[in-house]
Hints:
The structure is a single chain. By secondary structure, the protein is mainly α. The chain has one domain (11-55). It is 80% helix and 0% strand. It starts with a helix and ends with a helix. The model has no long low-confidence stretch (mean pLDDT 88).
Amino acid sequence: MGIDSFFKKIGSSIGKQVKKSQINLKQRGEIRTIKEKYLSKLSHRELVQIYKTYLGNEA
């Protein structure tokens, strides 16, 4: 393997990691926005019901 192909592979994998990081950052921002807009308006009882319905099986 030549030095050029070695650096090309490193650059490619770094680029993929940067892209994944950007996507994750965007998703976290969207989730935060949803939480702020909708979940903050729910009562504790409603939040517990959502947790039991959607997340309770995974815990």
